[in-house]
Write a sequence for this structure.
């Protein structure tokens, strides 16, 4: 049989193997996500069961998201029982990662019936807007409902919202060469994977098949195969900047940051209007502690797309890194750059800009500029007052009503680094019986004395992040101090 006649069959076999591999990867990822969630919740419920066995203990149920689950509740129990309050405390962790306030309220009833708490400590709302799982309308199609229950589907939606910037992306500005009438490099459409492979048979010069094959391999974690496929695509079309970006992502996943930098540099050389490639380049430089280059890359990304909210925080922390050299000239340069960034953020007039101002405020705290830190913290709080998510406000008020009817004490905790007033104001003056915990000053003072990294693992909230053990201990101690003073009179 001629070799040419065997090609389609061989290709179909390869496609079948790739498709089967993707299916197995999907099943493995789904199983891992479910097993990980089951193990986490099982350990959490085991710790809660241990707490319940303490007869006569004053029960406190902690309601919250990933900043609560497996975080401060255990430290809170230790902090309260370490005080001479004449009471034995049992603290129950009802935090749930990636949960918004509506999800937490849906779980409230079962928590109250199971644990019968004397007090509920609530710190929630950060996931009520931005890149979290949004509301989806009901559907009569069983297949759609089944897909929505999959952990991989939810992970994909959250990842996509992070990539898409929650709908706040704008079209990149054109390069000067385009304005001068020179031909532009247009982004290629992404046809379906199978269609790309068919094109490869019909037209061997088509690079899209190798590009999509590389992306499929990358999703499978087959990074060496992905790299090889992307290089084949570039051999066919060396002017495809998107493939260079894909290649840079693979190099980062393989922890080959020097190669990743070279790939992203090639991507922006081909298409200087590619703000995503500049952003990825900036983050790669940051991982190498090359803060000056990171600042410059983020600056270019923001020049192209000033409404990319995530870039403000990334650049702010690159600027802070620049100041960590302990050189006075570098510190002054960092302050000048941060002032420039702050001005750009104000000019951009972003929606939901409290995280942007919060990141700038925290960066000023790191640069030992308390006055400017406070100024941008106030801007962040003003933004929260103007645009406080109505769902968050409604759920806090509903929580108060439910607990008040049951005679359960409500304690509302503000996230670290953030001011208390926007949280207090959502109750519209009906705050009788509510205890509020302000975590702004204690955390800002702590960060000022040491560093942000001592107390936070990341900066997902703009001006705060998930706490380290030291941060969780500080948070728990502050809550315990407020409870001892305002509830137990000690």
């Amino acid at each position: 049989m001629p070799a040419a006649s065997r090609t389609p069959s061989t290709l179909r076999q390869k496609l079948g193997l790739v498709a089967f591999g993707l299916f197995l990867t999907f099943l493995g990822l789904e199983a891992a996500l479910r097993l990980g969630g089951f193990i986490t919740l099982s350990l959490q419920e085991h710790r809660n069961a241990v707490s319940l066995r303490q007869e006569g203990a004053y029960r406190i149920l902690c309601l919250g998201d990933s900043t609560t689950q497996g975080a401060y509740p255990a430290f809170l129990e230790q902090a309260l029982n370490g005080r001479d309050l004449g009471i034995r405390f049992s603290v129950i962790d009802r935090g749930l990662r990636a949960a918004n306030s509506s999800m937490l309220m849906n779980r409230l009833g079962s928590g109250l019936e199971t644990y019968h708490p004397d007090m509920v400590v609530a710190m929630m709302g950060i996931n009520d807007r931005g890149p979290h799982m949004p509301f989806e309308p009901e559907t009569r199609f069983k297949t759609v409902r089944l897909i929505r229950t999959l952990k991989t589907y939810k992970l994909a939606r959250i990842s996509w919202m992070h990539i898409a910037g929650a709908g706040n992306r704008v079209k990149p500005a054109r390069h000067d060469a385009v304005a001068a009438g020179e031909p532009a490099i247009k982004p290629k459409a992404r046809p379906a994977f199978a269609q790309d492979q068919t094109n490869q048979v019909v037209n061997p010069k088509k690079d899209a098949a190798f590009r999509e094959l590389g992306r499929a391999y990358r999703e499978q974690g087959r990074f060496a195969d992905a790299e090889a496929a992307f290089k084949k695509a570039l051999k066919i079309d060396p002017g495809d900047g998107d493939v260079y970006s894909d290649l840079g992502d693979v190099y980062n996943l393989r922890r080959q940051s020097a190669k990743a930098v070279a790939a992203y540099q090639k991507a922006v050389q081909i298409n200087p209007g590619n703000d995503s490639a500049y952003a990825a380049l900036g983050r790669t430089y940051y991982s190498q502690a090359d803060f000056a280059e990171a600042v410059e890359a983020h600056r270019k990304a923001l020049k192209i797309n000033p409404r990319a909210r995530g870039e403000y925080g990334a650049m702010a922390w690159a600027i802070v890194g620049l100041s960590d050299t302990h050189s006075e000239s570098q510190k002054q340069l960092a302050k000048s750059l941060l002032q420039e960034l702050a001005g750009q953020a104000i000019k951009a007039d972003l929606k939901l800009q409290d995280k942007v101002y919060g990141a700038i405020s925290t960066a000023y705290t790191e640069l030992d500029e308390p006055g400017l830190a406070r100024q941008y913290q106030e801007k962040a709080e003003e933004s929260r007052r103007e645009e406080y998510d109505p769902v968050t406000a409604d759920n806090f008020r509903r929580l108060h009503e439910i607990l008040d009817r049951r005679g359960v004490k409500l304690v509302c905790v503000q996230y670290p680094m953030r001011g208390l007033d926007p949280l207090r104001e959502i109750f519209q003056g009906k705050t009788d019986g509510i205890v509020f915990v302000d975590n702004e000053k204690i955390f800002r003072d702590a960060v000022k004395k040491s560093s942000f990294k001592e107390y936070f693992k990341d900066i997902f909230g703009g001006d705060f992040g998930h706490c380290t053990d030291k941060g969780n201990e500080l948070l728990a101690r502050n809550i315990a101090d407020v409870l001892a003073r305002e509830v137990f009179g000690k």
Summary: The domain at 54-128+389-430+438-486 is CATH 3.40.50.1110 (Rossmann fold). Strands lie at 58-64, 89-95, 119-123, 409-413, 434-437. The chain is about 65% helix and 5% strand.
